[in-house]
C-alpha cells in the first residue's frame, strides 16, 4: 500500500493527479489534497506519515518549500509545477525531481517506477532489475536544509523583466490579434475556459490556465485574487470589506454578473494587502 500526500491548490490538477495515481499506483491510500502550506503542515503533523509527497510549488499562502521550515519531511518528494523557467532552473541546479503540469501520464509512470525502486527495501520486494542499478540511479536526492534554503532563495528572486510576457496573440474569427499586456484588465476562468478581459471591454479566449499565467506575468502588476480571477492592479477600482474577514474587489470592466462578487480568497487577504502596500 503506497500512502501519498497531495499538496495542490488547483482542483482540476488535483483531480487529474488523483485519477492517474489510482490508475497506476494501486493499491494506494491518498492523503489530502492540502491546498496550502498550513494545511500540508497540519496533515504531516497529524499523521500518518506518507510514503511520498506530491508537492505543488505555488500555493494559496506561499511557496510550498516553506513547509520544510515548519515540519520535518522524511519521505521522498516529487514536485509538480506549471512551466516556470526559474523554478526548473532551480530544480536542475539542485538535482531535485519534478513533473511538469499538466502532468504527462508516461512521465508520472516513470516517476512512480523510480519511487518504487527507492521504497522497495521498505516493502520487502526488491527486484532483480532494481538490484542492478546504482544508488545514484534509484534514489532521489535528500531535501536537506541546505538544498531547501538554496531553492527558496532562488525561487524568491524576481525573474528578469524580459522573461515576463509583453503581449498575447488571440483569435478573432479568422483573424489573429495582438493584445499588449498593458491592455489587459484581468483574466478569469469560465466553464473550463480562460478568458482575457481587455481594458476596452472585449473578451478573448487564451490558451493558458490561470496558474500558467501567474508564471509568465509580472507579479508586481498582476495578483491571483482567487481560483477564478487574476487581475491587474489598475483594473481594481475598489476594495470592500466582506464577511468572514474577506475582501471584495470591484473590477473594471465589470465581470459577468453570473460570476457574483469577486472576492479575495481568505488565505490570500494578508498577502494581497502586502502586495498593495509594497
From TrEMBL:
<protein>
    <submittedName>
        <fullName>Response regulator transcription factor</fullName>
    </submittedName>
</protein>
<dbReference type="InterPro" id="IPR007492">
    <property type="entry name" value="LytTR_DNA-bd_dom"/>
</dbReference>
<dbReference type="InterPro" id="IPR039420">
    <property type="entry name" value="WalR-like"/>
</dbReference>
<keyword id="KW-0238">DNA-binding</keyword>
<feature type="domain" description="HTH LytTR-type">
    <location>
        <begin position="168"/>
        <end position="278"/>
    </location>
</feature>
<dbReference type="GO" id="GO:0000156">
    <property type="term" value="F:phosphorelay response regulator activity"/>
</dbReference>
<feature type="domain" description="Response regulatory">
    <location>
        <begin position="3"/>
        <end position="116"/>
    </location>
</feature>
<feature type="modified residue" description="4-aspartylphosphate">
    <location>
        <position position="56"/>
    </location>
</feature>
<dbReference type="InterPro" id="IPR011006">
    <property type="entry name" value="CheY-like_superfamily"/>
</dbReference>
<dbReference type="InterPro" id="IPR001789">
    <property type="entry name" value="Sig_transdc_resp-reg_receiver"/>
</dbReference>
<dbReference type="GO" id="GO:0032993">
    <property type="term" value="C:protein-DNA complex"/>
</dbReference>
<dbReference type="GO" id="GO:0000976">
    <property type="term" value="F:transcription cis-regulatory region binding"/>
</dbReference>
<keyword id="KW-0597">Phosphoprotein</keyword>
<dbReference type="GO" id="GO:0006355">
    <property type="term" value="P:regulation of DNA-templated transcription"/>
</dbReference>
<dbReference type="GO" id="GO:0005829">
    <property type="term" value="C:cytosol"/>
</dbReference>
<dbReference type="Pfam" id="PF00072">
    <property type="entry name" value="Response_reg"/>
</dbReference>
<dbReference type="Pfam" id="PF04397">
    <property type="entry name" value="LytTR"/>
</dbReference>
Amino acid at each position: 500500500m503506497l500512502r501519498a500526500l497531495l499538496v495542490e491548490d488547483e482542483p482540476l490538477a488535483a483531480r487529474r493527479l488523483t485519477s492517474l495515481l489510482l490508475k497506476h499506483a494501486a493499491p494506494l491510500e491518498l492523503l489530502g489534497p492540502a491546498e496550502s502550506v498550513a494545511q500540508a503542515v497540519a496533515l504531516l503533523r497529524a499523521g500518518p506519515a506518507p510514503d511520498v509527497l506530491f508537492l505543488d510549488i505555488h500555493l494559496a499562502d506561499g511557496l510550498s518549500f516553506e513547509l520544510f521550515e515548519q515540519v520535518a519531511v522524511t519521505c521522498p518528494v516529487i514536485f509538480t509545477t506549471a512551466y516556470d523557467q526559474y523554478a526548473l532552473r532551480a530544480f536542475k541546479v539542485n538535482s531535485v525531481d519534478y513533473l511538469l503540469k499538466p502532468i504527462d501520464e508516461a512521465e508520472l509512470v516513470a516517476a512512480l517506477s523510480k519511487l518504487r525502486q527507492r521504497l522497495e527495501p521498505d516493502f520487502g520486494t526488491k527486484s532483480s532489475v532494481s538490484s542492478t542499478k546504482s544508488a545514484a540511479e534509484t534514489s532521489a536526492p535528500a531535501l536537506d536544509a541546505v538544498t531547501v534554503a538554496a531553492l527558496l532563495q532562488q525561487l524568491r528572486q524576481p525573474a528578469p523583466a524580459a522573461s515576463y510576457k509583453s503581449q498575447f496573440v488571440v483569435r478573432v474569427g479568422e483573424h489573429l490579434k495582438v493584445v499588449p499586456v498593458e491592455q489587459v484588465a484581468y483574466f478569469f476562468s469560465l466553464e473550463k475556459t480562460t478568458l482575457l478581459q481587455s481594458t476596452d471591454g472585449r473578451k478573448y479566449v487564451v490558451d493558458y490556465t490561470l496558474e500558467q499565467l501567474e508564471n509568465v506575468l509580472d507579479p508586481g502588476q498582476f495578483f491571483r485574487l482567487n481560483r477564478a480571477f487574476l487581475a491587474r492592479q489598475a483594473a481594481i477600482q475598489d476594495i470592500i470589506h466582506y464577511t468572514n474577514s474577506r475582501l471584495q474587489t470591484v473590477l473594471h470592466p465589470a465581470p459577468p454578473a453570473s460570476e457574483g462578487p469577486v472576492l479575495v480568497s481568505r488565505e490570500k487577504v494578508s498577502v494581497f494587502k502586502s502586495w498593495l502596500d509594497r
